[in-house]
Each structure stands twice: as C-alpha cells, then as structure tokens.
C-alpha cells in the first residue's frame, strides 16, 4: 500500500469516530501538557538560579588571596607551593599584573573594615566595604531604593536594609511584619553619616628610639633588623562625611557570612582614605611603602568557561585562587536530578493516555473487522494492516503532542503571571521561572509520537492476525 493511500485511509478512519478519537487525542494532549509543564518548570528554575548567580558575580569571579595569609593556607598548598614567608605580597602592582592577564575584565581589591558611624550624634558600629562601579549590575541593587554612586570618588554611602533599620530604631521583632525598604528610605535618603576611621600614614624615616620608648603617634618601634630601621607608619584618627544615597533590600554580600558589610562606599573613595587594614600589621616590612597591601583581590573574567584558565594563571604567580566553579557543577547536577523526577511525574498522565490509545484502537478493530477482512481478501498484507493502525496511532500522537505543547506553555504562562502578581503584592520583583525552549517542544512532539506508536503495537498486531474468512463472516 502506497503512502498517500495509507494516509488518506488512516485520516478517513479517524474522521468516522470523531468523538472517540478526539477524546483520545485530548488525553494525549493532557499528558504532553503535564510533561511539558513539569520540565519547563525545572528548566526555568535552573535558568533563574543561573541568572541570579551570574548577576551576583559568583559565576565569573575568582577570589585571589596571598599565601602569606595563614588563614587561607592548607596542607595541599604547603606541598605544592612556596612557604608563606617566601610568597609574593598581594599589593597594588600585583593587582595590576593580575588585571592584565588574558580573559580578565577587572581585578579590584577587597577593602573592608569595622568602624564607627554616627547618625544624629548616635554611634553605630558596623562593617564598611568598598564597591567597584561594576557592582551596579549586581542583582542586589536591582530593587535598590535610591540610586547608585554618582561617581567613583563621591562621598556617598549605600546602606543595607538591616543597618537602615538600626539607624531608625526599627529593628524587626518576632511575629511582626518587616518594615518595607520604601519606608526606611524616605527618612534616610540624602541624610548625612559621619564615619570615624583609622588612617594609615606612611613615613620614610623614623626617629631613633631607645629602650622601650615609643612615639605617641607611631604604631611600630624601630626593629633590631637594620633593614627595617627606617620602616614606620602612623595611625591617625580621621572623619569622613557621607551622604546616604540608597538602601538595598537584598544583601550583596550574603555569601560572606559574618564578615559581610552593611554599609558600602565607592571603591576609589575607600582607596583614597588609606584606611588601616589588618594586612598593614602583617606586612610590617613595607611600613614605609605608599603601595597598599590587600587581603584579597576579586578577579572578574570574561566568561565562566575561562574561570579555570585564570585560576591556573593566578596560582602560577604564587597566589591562592578560589571560585565556586565546583559548587556550580553540584547545582547543575541537582537540577538534572530534579528534571528527571519532574519528567517522571509529568509522564504519568501520558501513561494514562497510552492506555486510552490502546483502548481506542482495539475498539476500532472490533468495529472494522469486516473492512479488514475485505482489505486482506483483495491483497492487503499483514504489514499493510499494521501500517494502517500505526498511521492512525501516530496521527493522534502528533496532533495530541502539538496541542499538548501549546496547552503546557499556556499553563506555564498563567502560573507565572499569577505568581508575579503575588510577588508584586509582597513588594518582590517579578521573576520569569517558566521556560519552554525549542528543544523541549520538539522532544515533546516526538515523544508523544513514539508513545502513540508503542500504544499501537498490540492493536496493529491483533488486526494483522485476523483471518479474512472469519472477518468477512463478522456482522
């Protein structure tokens, strides 16, 4: 039997039992819609997590630390590299050298310190950190109330929500609704903070001292080593006025744990203040140098795929390097397992449709026994009969798959819209967590087609085995 004849005959048979075949096709559509909805949810959540991590700068950032910082030193590094005392210092020339490595967009120092800020003559102790201009794209600042820094040297500050609550004396209590960021921003925006900090001032020479005498302003005595005899620096108390320009709802440093900051300054401004850092005490041999020494440097690469290359280059320079590349692989593995489980649950409805196809085709055999007998009597082979039933099953599968994909996409859009309405009512930004890529559309239709063919195996075999003589006698 030729393909055009087979197609025409299959479509005619489907039209003869419109109601039953339509209900079977609807069952397939519901099964495919369930599968598409489940998988598109898993894919959407994975894409949402990836977008969040990319915007947070975690996926494309390598954190560089000095081997001289013993807090970051472990046994593996002890075996594979130079001793801490022989390692390079992570200073400004080194930062520039790292910034010029291939595939590196920028390398900026981690400047943070605990200090006192006064608001309306009331002292508040907190951690302050510096932000580069590129932090503007961080997802934590998408919903910021106010504006980002006007320039790199502007004496401005962005407050984290918890610190803004502290300034206004609105610390949330258990069982009480949290204060919205808008309520916190209104009384604070444009107001002035006074930051008191310890400034490091380098000196090229130090006066001779005898015994245990120390200068009142000097933080280090002349050491016995003659190579350090002139090394000295002073620590001077300074004040800096800061204008509050924004309040951030999300925490841009949530991954840092207890060391995360609650007040943020422009990076260039923080560098110009020469705030005393813990590394200044560790690198006493550089006391007379005007080049700052950093505890860590964050390196942004052009693409997450270049993370490992940049890490290896930094390690060859004699520094420690860390990224969340391995953690991201674990996240991807989690979402793959989630997709498998969602696909299994989504396929349950398709299994019910599978049974419906078998039932429909078996009923068609009973109704068309005489027709099948005539076909075989005039020369139709068993293969022709099987192909006819496969064609009918495949047609229902393809049509059901197409309708099911459209239905699954519509379900996702409705749920996404409803969820965003709820998020907006709770003052959260809208999210798009439902994704139907083209490969999922093709997979759903093809999968539906093959499931329908599998459902047609038994009815097609049963029809092909009919004895034409007995079939012609059937009334």
Please, could you describe this protein's structure?
Strand 3 (112-119) and strand 4 (122-131) form a beta hairpin. The longest helix has 44 residues, at 382-425. It is built from 15 helices and eleven strands. With 475 residues, the protein is of the alpha+beta class. Helix 5 (161-168) crosses helix 6 (181-188) and helix 12 (382-425) runs antiparallel to helix 14 (457-464).
The structural class is: alpha+beta
The number of distinct β-strands equals 11
* Helix content, binned percent: 40-55%
Gyration radius (Cα, Å) is: 35 Å
Enumerate the spans where pLDDT stays under 50 for 5 or more consecutive residues.
205-229
Strand content: 15-25%
Quick gist of this model?
This protein has 475 residues and is an alpha+beta fold. It contains 15 helices and eleven strands.
List keywords for this structure.
elongated; alpha+beta; six-stranded mixed beta barrel; 15 helices; four-stranded antiparallel β-sheet; 11 strands; 475 residues; single chain; 49% helix
Give the helices and strands, then pairings.
Layout: H1 3-16, H2 18-55, E1 61-66, H3 75-80, H4 92-99, E2 104-109, E3 112-119, E4 122-131, E5 145-146, E6 156-160, H5 161-168, H6 181-188, E7 192-203, E8 232-248, E9 263-266, H7 267-273, H8 278-282, E10 296-301, H9 307-316, E11 319-322, H10 325-367, H11 369-377, H12 382-425, H13 438-455, H14 457-464, H15 468-473
Parallel strand pairs: 4-9, 6-8
Antiparallel strand pairs: 1-10, 1-11, 2-10, 3-4, 3-7, 5-8, 6-9, 7-8
Helix pairs in contact: 1-12, 2-10, 2-12, 2-13, 5-6, 10-13, 10-14, 12-13, 12-14
């Amino acid at each position: 039997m030729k393909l055009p004849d087979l197609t025409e005959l299959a479509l005619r048979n489907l039209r003869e039992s419109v109601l039953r075949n339509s209900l079977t096709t609807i069952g397939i559509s519901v099964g495919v819609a369930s599968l598409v909805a489940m998988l598109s949810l898993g894919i959407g959540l994975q894409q949402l997590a990836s977008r969040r991590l990319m915007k947070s700068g975690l996926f494309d950032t390598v954190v560089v630390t000095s081997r001289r910082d013993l807090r970051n030193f472990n046994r593996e590094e002890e075996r594979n590299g130079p001793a801490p005392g022989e390692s390079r210092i992570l200073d400004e020339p080194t930062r520039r050298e790292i910034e010029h490595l291939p595939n590196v967009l920028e390398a900026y120092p981690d400047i943070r310190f605990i200090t006192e800020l006064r608001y309306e003559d009331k002292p508040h102790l907190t951690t302050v950190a510096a932000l580069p201009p590129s932090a503007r794209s961080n997802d934590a600042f998408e919903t910021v109330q106010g504006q980002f820094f006007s320039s790199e040297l502007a004496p401005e500050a962005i407050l984290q929500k918890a610190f803004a609550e502290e300034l206004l004396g609105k610390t949330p209590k258990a069982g009480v609704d949290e204060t919205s960021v808008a309520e916190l921003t209104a009384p604070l925006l444009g107001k002035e903070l006074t930051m008191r900090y310890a400034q490091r001032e380098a000196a090229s020479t130090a006066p001779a001292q005898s015994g245990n005498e120390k200068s009142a302003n000097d933080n280090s005595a002349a050491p016995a080593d003659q190579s350090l005899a002139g090394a000295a620096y002073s620590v001077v108390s300074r004040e800096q006025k800061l204008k509050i320009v924004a309040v951030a709802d999300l925490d841009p440093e949530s991954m840092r744990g207890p060391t995360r900051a609650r007040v943020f300054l422009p990076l260039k401004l923080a560098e110009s203040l020469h705030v005393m850092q813990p590394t200044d005490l560790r690198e006493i041999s550089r006391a007379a140098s005007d080049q700052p020494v950093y505890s860590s440097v964050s390196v942004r690469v052009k693409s997450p795929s270049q993370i490992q290359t940049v890490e290896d280059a930094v390690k060859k320079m004699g520094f420690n390097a860390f990224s969340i590349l391995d953690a991201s692989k674990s996240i991807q593995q989690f979402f793959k397992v989630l997709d498998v489980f969602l696909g299994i649950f989504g396929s349950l409805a398709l299994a019910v449709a599978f049974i419906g196809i078998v039932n429909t085709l078996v009923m068609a055999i009973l109704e068309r026994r005489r027709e099948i007998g005539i076909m075989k009597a005039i020369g139709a082979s068993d293969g022709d009969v099987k192909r006819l039933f496969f064609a009918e099953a495949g047609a229902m599968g393809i049509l059901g798959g197409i309708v099911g994909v459209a239905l699954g996409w519509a379900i996702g859009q409705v749920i996404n819209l409803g969820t965003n309405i709820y998020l907006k009512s709770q003052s959260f930004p809208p999210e798009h967590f439902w994704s139907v890529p083209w490969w999922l559309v093709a997979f759903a239709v093809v999968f539906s087609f093959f499931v329908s063919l599998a459902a047609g195996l038994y009815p097609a075999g049963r029809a092909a085995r009919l004895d034409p003589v007995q079939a012609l006698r059937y009334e």
